[in-house]
Design brief:
This protein is α+β, with helices and mostly antiparallel strands. It has a single domain, classed as Alpha-Beta Plaits. The chain has a 4-stranded antiparallel sheet with strand order 2-3-1-4. It starts with a helix and ends with a strand. The model has no long low-confidence stretch (mean pLDDT 87).
């Protein structure tokens, strides 16, 4: 019991010490929306094929997610030169992490309607893997400077 009390005391002291630091950080910015940032490497010579997909199926699906209110917006950014790691970013904006979690089932149901069954979606991923590689996806919070 004595060890548990010491651990709890250390935890409470650490939390109390961190609280002023957190408050000080927020004096410089206001937390904004959440973005997913997906890094894509388009295979050499396959830009046209991937752009065709983005301008059709991808755009239709994303526009429906935005219209339904599950996403706020989305953007595509292409680098000016070819990088060995990634050369295209897909950004999706969400109101908050809580909104992502609250809408996951509804957003998936909409995807089933727009992109087909889970099997259809997996086949699409497999087909696109021939001309693009997903390097990774990160979640980021927009910081609105004061």
């Amino acid at each position: 019991m004595g060890i548990l009390r010491k651990v709890l005391l250390v935890g409470m002291l650490a939390a109390a010490a961190a609280t002023p630091a957190i408050g000080q950080v927020y004096k410089y910015f206001t937390p904004g929306t959440i973005w997913t940032v997906t890094m894509i490497q388009i295979a050499s010579g396959m830009d046209q094929k991937y752009m065709e997909y983005l301008a059709s199926e991808f755009k239709e699906s994303e526009d429906k997610q935005v219209k339904a209110g599950f996403e706020k917006s989305y953007k595509i950014l292409r680098t000016m030169g070819d990088d060995s790691e990634w050369n295209l970013l897909i950004l999706r904006e969400f109101e908050s992490l809580a909104a992502i979690e609250a809408n996951v089932e509804k957003a998936d149901a909409l995807l089933q309607k727009t992109d087909g069954s889970d099997q259809d979606q997996m086949q699409g991923y497999e087909d696109r893997s021939e001309y693009r590689e997903i390097v990774g996806t990160k979640y980021a919070r927009e910081l609105i400077l004061k």
